[in-house]
Every structure is written in structure tokens, then in C-alpha cells.
Write a structure and sequence with these properties.
This protein is an alpha/beta fold and 275 residues long. The protein is built from 8 helices and 11 strands. It binds S-adenosylmethionine. S-adenosylmethionine binds next to strand 11.
Amino acid sequence: MPQIIHGDNLPAMRAMPDGCVHLVYADPPFNTGHAQRRRRMRTVRDDSAERIGFGGRRYREELLQTAVQFLDQYDDILEFLEPRLIEAYRLLSPTGSLFFHIDYREVHYCKVLLDSIFGRECFQNEIIWAYDYGARPGRKWPAKHDTILWYTKSPKDWTFHRAASDRIPYMAPGLVGKEKAARGKLPTDVWWHTIVSPTGKEKTGYPTQKPLGILERIVNVHTSKGETVLDMFAGSGTAAEAAARNGRDFIAIDRSKEAIAVMQTRLAEWIAKAS
Ligand SMILES: C[S@@+](CC[C@H](N)C(=O)[O-])C[C@H]1O[C@@H](n2cnc3c(N)ncnc32)[C@H](O)[C@@H]1O
């Protein structure tokens, strides 16, 4: 049964039995030191704006409202994460995987922590999610990637449905045959993927929402149909939607009531189907 749990993920996870999930996705606050805000925008006609839409008309984005959703600041992020990642390890099935999503500010400390919990031999990949959107500072290279660390419960045996991955275009399609170029290739550990478009259908308005395409790739390759995906820091419920769309079960935990409200709307269709 799909579940949305409102509350701190530590007691919620401690109440679950050993080995009950096949994939854990963890996208904790990145410790940016900022309050994360929900921004509501609207598109208005403006003949002097740069964005060109249907029929050559010009539009600009107008900010309607911002509201604080959660405070992204910890005195000691590792002290916060450690007991939660120990629970994630306990909850994983023998062939299960953890995908830990973080950015350049904390990834090196988190990698050392995860090595100590899972064992270095269970570290499988450092996935770079690369995008290109937003401000570009003038005096250093713009930071336009997140890091996703993949760990397995077992050092030898894990789920990896390679053929279930989506395929991506070749960088130089002219160098491969027509048939290969049309089929595309499997991704490497660098995943180019756009962010959730601020004006697109996928957007829920919840800050730090991750793209469904990234989560569907993880769910499809690293779990089988009918298995359970746990999202420990669920936010808008992207991992849960990826699971539900692809015939997997989900448990989504968040301590913010705004996140729970967003998920209840976003996941209503699948919760209704399952009950
Ligand atoms: C980076 S956001 C997750 C975004 C999500 N992956 C998405 O696609 O929408 C982190 C979330 O963790 C939640 N959170 C922080 N500490 C938590 C805790 N101890 N227990 C449960 N949720 C927590 C916050 O409320 C926030 O929604």
C-alpha cells in the first residue's frame, strides 16, 4: 500500500521492519544556510519582454507570492544524517540500493559518512546530475550540478535492470550508424537533464523539487515491479510519483505540512487506485 507519512523520518523509519524496502532515495536539505521558499509565478503579456511564446507574442514572469517552506540550515549536518542513514541501511532488502542526493557543499563529508555505514565496497557510483539554468557568477565557474551517491546493501549482488533505462542521444551521431543513432545510447554516470521548468506542467511549486526523469531512471533500473521505494525526505513526492507511475509501491516521509499537502494532491490518483 502506498503511504505518505507526516513527521520526522527518524522515528518513522525506526518503526519499520528490517529489509522492507528495495530502494531508498534521500534528498536531504543541502545545508545552504537559506530558507527554502515556495515561489508562485504567473506569465503576463509584455511587448518589451525577451521570452517569445505562441504567435510571436512576448511574455514575462511575474512573482505572485513567496512563502517559507523549510529552513535549510544545520549546525552539524552529519550528526543529523548519521542515525537516519543507519536506519536506511537497516531497511534495505539484501539486493537494495540507496541513492543519496546532495550538492558540492557537503558531498565529500557525506561520502565519508556513507562509506562508514555501508562499507567502501558497497559504493557503486558517483552520479553527476548536470543542468544549466539560473544565475552565472562572474568570478568563478557556475556550479550547475548535483551529486547522487549510489550505495548497495550487498557488495556483490544488487538490482540493475540496464535495459530498463531510458536512452539518450549520441553526442556525435554522425560517427555511429543510422540505426544506433536512432536508438540512442545508455547514459554514463553524468546525467544531463533539465531542472523542473518553472512554468511547465511538472512543477508543483515546492522548492527544490527534483525532475521526474531523474527519479524514473533510478526507479526503473534499480527496482522491479511491485517493489517498494522509500523517500526519506520526500518534499513534493517526486520519487513516490516515479515509483507509482512505474508499478512500484512507495513510502514518502516529510516533516513539513506543506510538503504533505503537495504530495496528497500529486499522488491522489495512485493512492485512490490502491485503496
Ligand atoms: C530537498 S527537499 C526534498 C525535495 C524532493 N526530493 C522533491 O523532489 O520535491 C528536503 C525535504 O526534507 C524535509 N525534511 C527535512 N528534515 C526532515 C526530517 N527530519 N524528517 C522528514 N523530512 C525532513 C524537508 O521538509 C524538505 O521537504
